Amino acid sequence: MLTLYTLVMHLLSLYSIFIVANVVFSWLYAFNVINPRNGLVRAIGLFLYKVTEPTLRFVRQFLPNLGTLDISPAVVLLIIWVIESLMRQYFVPVLLANY
Q1: Helices 72-97/2-30 angle, 10° precision
Q2: Where are the domains of the chain?
């Protein structure tokens, strides 16, 4: 059970990193800091988009339209933080009680 808890926590942390990387990448792309015609840059951008977009699209359905401001990554990161906190609060005592 401890292994499952650790795996879920690591996956949530990894997904948080992907979301932050996607936000930073989109800023760099929007301000022409990186070259969009570079194959590696395009591959990284496509990977980050495909990994994060399904979750962000789902959250955007419930958010009001704020024009060009997209707060869905912040909402997803907040949800991940809440899930991690709840897991630490409720699962760690149960896991430690079994050992």
Answers
A1: 160
A2: 2-97
